[in-house]
Design goal:
By secondary structure, this protein is mainly alpha-helical. Helices cover about 80% and strands about 0% of the residues. It has helices spanning about 5-25, 30-55, 60-70, 70-85, 90-110. Helix 1 (about 5-25) runs antiparallel to helix 2, helix 3 (about 60-70) packs antiparallel against helix 5 (about 90-110) and helix 4 (about 70-85) runs antiparallel to helix 5. The two termini are about 20 Å apart.
Length: about 110
């Protein structure tokens, strides 16, 4: 069984997501660490959403829009994070939800 390059990339990104999520919620005294992992989580969400949306054929416009809508929780998380001055649990969960929705969109819409 041959694995495609896109599937291997998705597996690597999901592994990165798991590691990032763990470190995002491990309590540390340094707020900079939480901000770095939150930003990394948002970037992973954008990357997975981009891969999901651009891997679809051009005649699947509604599915492409649905993939791009997976970025809405990340936007909400960023807004909450900026409003509070630091990423709180809700912002982190929104960032994680973006990645989960994007990966599910890649597997079920594509």
């Amino acid at each position: 069984m041959a694995l495609s390059a896109m599937f291997i990339l998705e597996v690597v990104i999901v592994f990165s997501f798991i590691v990032t999520s763990l470190f995002m919620f491990i309590p540390k005294k340094n707020e900079a660490v939480h901000k770095i992992f939150f930003v990394l989580s948002v970037m992973l969400g954008i990357l997975v959403t981009f891969i999901s949306a651009t891997s679809l054929p051009s005649n699947m416009q509604m599915q492409t829009v649905a993939c791009w809508l997976c970025l809405v929780p990340a936007a909400i998380g960023i807004i909450v994070s900026v409003a509070k001055g630091k990423p709180n649990v809700f912002a982190k969960l929104c960032s994680m939800l973006t990645i989960i929705l994007s990966v599910l969109g890649y597997y079920f819409l594509g």
